[in-house]
Amino acid sequence: MEDRGITVDELSKPSTGSIARGLGIGALLTLAGAIASLPLMVIYVGFILFFAIGLAQLIWMIPAYRRYTKRGETETAKGLLIVAGIVFLLNASCWGVLANTNFR
């Protein structure tokens, strides 16, 4: 049986986070933003936040991205960007379908 000890380099190496963690955090932030926009619909700000969530998510994604990159968790930051891109593309495609629909 071999002894596979942990070296000092492995212990001192900072964690870069994980993409899965970034995906989870990004999904939770986006869900929280969508839920928070519902009460704001009373003053019409919520409509913009809810129906333009692809752009409105920049309000909370940019600070989260900067926080994780400053902490050196680049993989977590990548996960946040992946979620932001997916939400933006889904929102844009829904608006594209609505723009090309003939309502009679």
Question: Nutshell version of this structure?
Answer:
This protein has 104 residues and is mainly alpha-helical.
Task: List the uncertain runs.
Answer: none
Overall radius of gyration: 19 Å
Mean of all residue-level pLDDT scores: 83
Strand content: under 5%
The biggest sheet, with number of strands, parallel, antiparallel or mixed sense and barrel status, is:
none
What does this structure look like?
This protein has 104 residues and is mainly alpha-helical. The chain has one domain (17-99). It has six helices and no strands. The protein has helices at residues 8-12, 19-40, 45-51, 53-56, 58-70, 74-99. The protein is elongated, with a radius of gyration of 19 Å. The model has no long low-confidence stretch (mean pLDDT 83).
Topology of this structure?
Layout: H1 8-12, H2 19-40, H3 45-51, H4 53-56, H5 58-70, H6 74-99
Helix pairs in contact: 2-3, 2-6, 5-6
